[in-house]
Amino acid sequence: MQDRHVPAALAITLVLALLAGPVAGQQPAPGAGPGRGAGGRGVGPSPALPAGPAPRRPDGTVMLGGATIKDKGVWLPANGGAQTMVPAQMALPYQDWARGVAADREKNQLEPHTRCKPSGAARQFLTPYGVEFVDLPEAKRVYIFDIGGPHTYRIIYMDGRSHPDHPSPSNYGHSIGWWDGDALVVDTVGYNEDFWMDRRGLPHTEQLHTVERFLRTNKNTIEYHMTVDDPGAYLAPFEGMFTLRYSENQELFEYVCQQANYASELMVGDQHKVSRSSPIVP
């Protein structure tokens, strides 16, 4: 005869197991964080890890990636999607026309980045998908790969060259770099006007000249600092800064920018629709 008490015993065992916590198969993957689930909103930061020293090469130079070629990781803004280059309340030395453009962009977020266009200056680092640094000393170049959005990359020349006299304007501009102690310094000119300088929509012209400093203070932290000099849009140079956090065990992944894009409000702003009869130039 079948023991009628067996089903009851099994039920009690199951309840106790559920109360004890998730089963092993339901544990989050190492390095997974908020934002990686439905909707594909980004890789998210890794759980807090002990901030050990920044990895270094045998000559003592700080490395911007992992300590070995097998180590994987990407850099994300510490404040996620809310991160900006300068605080919203900070008064900037706008020229009148630039102040008007900035105010319009606050209402109409018609940012080229939402249309899969590459973004230069600080905007390159202000995404929930992060960037990956690839430093090749033997080639005297540093590459910065964008993960989400346009899936493009930027080249920083480390061979001591100067800027060309008349660089062809581009989204990333022409970048030359050098090491100043533990900080990578990057000087860039030759930008075009086809991107927003940060998430706030700071305007700029082709006269834009930026100097960036990437200071890796420990394994998990890069302090990013940028000086902006654009006499075409601002009355004086100004500075901005934010922090990047290392997300370990993450790497480049396939990203289709416009498929299933539900962020229509980022493409229409305070209007009801946008005419498709001509190119949109924010």
Structure description:
The protein is an alpha+beta fold and 282 residues long. The protein has a domain at 73-268. It has helices at residues 6-20, 96-107, 265-268, and strands at 73-77, 131-136, 141-146, 153-157, 174-180, 183-189, 209-218, 221-229, 238-248. The chain has a nine-stranded mixed beta sheet, with no helix packed on it. It is globular, with a radius of gyration of 23 Å.
Please describe the structure with a list of short key phrases separated by commas or semicolons:
alpha+beta; 9 strands; 282 residues
Q: How many β-strand runs?
A: 9
What's the arrangement of strands in the largest beta sheet? 1-9-8-7-6-5-4-3-2
Radius of gyration: 23 Å
Helix content: 10-25%
Query: Largest sheet, if any?
Result: 9 strands, mixed
Task: Tell me, briefly, the overall form.
Answer: globular
Based on helices, strands and strand pairing, what is the structural class?
A: alpha+beta
Q: What's the average pLDDT?
A: 80
What amount of the residues lies in strands? 15-25%
Distance between the termini: 79 Å
Q: Which residues form runs of ≥5 with pLDDT under 50?
A: 1-41, 278-282
SS field, number of helical segments: 3
- SSE series: HEHEEEEEEEEH
